[in-house]
Amino acid sequence: MKVKFYGTRGSVPVSSPDKVLYGGNTTCVRIYSECLPAGLTLAIDAGSGFVPLSWDALAEGNLEEIIILFTHYHYDHTQGLFLAPPIFMKHLKLKLCGPVDQGIGPKQMLHELMRPPYFPVHHREVESHITYKDFEFPKTMVIVFHAQGGYRIMTIESYERVLAHDSMLPIGREKFHVSECLIITMHKSRHPEQTVSYRIEEKTTNATFVFLTDHENEDGLPRSFRNHLMGADLLVMDAQYSREKYEKFTSGFGHGTPDYCVRVAEDVGVKKLGLTHHDPASTDADIADIMKEAEETRKKSDLEVFACHDYLEIDL
Ligand SMILES: [Zn+2]
Ligand SMILES: [Zn+2]
Question: Which ligand minimizes its atom distance to the CA of 76?
Answer without folding.
Answer: 1
